[in-house]
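We append the chain.
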Amino acid sequence: MVKILWVDDEVELLKPHVLFLKGKGYEVDTCNNGYDAIDMAGDVAYDLIILDEMMPGMTGLETLPQIKEVRPTTPVIMVTKSEEENIMDKAIGSKIADYLIKPVNPNQVLLSIKKNVHQQQLVTEQTTADYRSEFGRISQSLQMADTFQDWCSLYRKITSWEIELDSSTDQSIKEVLSYQKNEANHEFCKFVRRNYYNWINKRATDTPVMSHTLMRNRIFPVADENKKTTLLLIDNFRYDQWRSISSLLRGYYDVEVDDFFCAILPTATQYARNAIFAGLMPLSIDKLMPNKWLNDNEDGGKNQYEEEFLKRLMAQNGKNWKFTFDKLVRPEQGRRLLDNIQKVYDADFSVIVYNFLDILSHARTETEIIRELTEDEAAFRSLTRSWFEHSDLYTILKMLSEKGHTVVITSDHGTIRVDNPVKVTGDRETSSNLRYKTGRNLSYNSKEVYEVLRPEDIQLPSSNLTSSYIFAYNSDFLIYNNDANRHIRYYRNTFQHGGISMEEMIVPYIVLKPKK
C-alpha cells in the first residue's frame, strides 16, 4: 500500500481530503508542523510527502531540506497559498516533485500523486496499450514493404517503439517488439538479396542513395546552398543513437532533414567509408588508384586516403571550396581540433570523421566491464548519450552553431548485436570479419548466407582470381569450425558490422540548421 504523509498546520480541515485518498486505497498520516514531519519522515519510509509552505514555527521551505536529508529520493509536493514567483522558484530550486496552490480539490491531489508515485506504472500501461494497437499496422507494413524508402519508414517506426519502451517495465511487450524486429530484419535481408545486384549495376529505377553516391546526391548540394557546411561522419552510428543525442542539440539546431541512405556491402569501414569519400565503388577505386586500395588479406591501414579521395571527387565536380579534413580517433585529437577550431570556422566545407563509437564497439567485445555497461541496445544508447554529452564533439557542435554552420551528421554504416553463430571454413588468407568473409576456399551452407561468387558483379575487388564473398544475415555471425565453442562464447551478444541488417545498412542522414 502507498504511504503518504500530509503536513499542514490546519490539518483538521484536511479530513475530507484524507478520507477521499483512503477511499482510493492510500494510507495517509498527518501532522501539523515541520518538526514532527522531519521526525516522522525519519521513522517511516513514505512514498510521498505533501508539505504546506505557510506554517508557523518552521515553514515548508525550511522543513523541506531537512526532510530531503533523511529521505532524499522521496517525492515532495509543496502546497502554497501564494502564487508569488519567488516562492515557486525557491520551491522548484529545492527539488520538489510538484506544487499545488490552495485551495486544492481532491482530484488535483490525486492527479499529482499518480504523476509522482505511479508514473512508471501508468507510462508502462499506456505505452504497452499503444504498441499493442500498433503491432498489427507494423506487421502489415512489413508484408507490403517493396522499396528502400518503405523499409526506412518501417525501421524508423520500430526504432521509435524501441526507444519508447526503454522505460517500460513490461518485459513481455519488449519481447514481442524484439520478435517483430527480428522478423522485419529477416524480411529485409530477403529484400536486399533480391535487389542489391540491380542497385549496384544501375538496373533499378528505384535505386536508393548509396555510399558511393551520397556525396554527389546529398552532401554537395547542401554545401552549395549554405555558406558554411560541416560534415560530421561518426563511425558505427545508428539511427537509435542519433535519437539518443538529438535532444541535446535542440537548443542549438533545427533538424531540417531526418532521412537515411543505404550503405554498400560489406558494411565495414574499409569499403563503405572509402566509397563515400571517393564517390566510387571499391572495385573502381582499386582499378583507378591501385596504390590506394588494400584488400582484406594485405597488411596496412585500409582508410589512409580518405582526404585525397574527397579532394579528387570535389575537383571532378567543380567544387572549389576552402576545405578542411580532420579524423579524430584519440581523445587528444578532439582537444587539438578545439584549439584549432578557427580553421573549421574559416572553411567553406569542413569534414570531421569521429571514430569513438567504433572504438566503443570493439571495447565492448574485448572488455568485460564495458560489456556489462552496454548489456543491450538500450544501455548502448544510454552510454552513447552520456559519451556525447561530455565529449569534445558536443562542444565543437555548439561552437559551430554559434558561427552559423549548417551541419550534416551521418555514418559509413551501423552495427548489430549478434547472437546466432553460422559455421564457415576457409584458408589462412580468409578475412577475419565476423559479418562477412572473402577468400578463395570458403566452405559454408549457401542457404545461410548471401553469397557472391563473382565479386565484380557487385563492384567489389578480388584478392585473387577465385575469391568470393559471403555476407551474414540479420543477427548471425560467422565463425570457424576450429575452436568454435570458445569463439561463440566470446563473440555472442557483441556488436558487429559488415553484413546485412536494417541496423547496418539503413544509415541516418541528418541536416541541422543553426538556430538564429
Q: What stands out?
A: The longest strand covers residues 253-262. DSSP finds 21 helices and 18 strands in the chain. Residues 171-200 form the longest helix (30 residues).
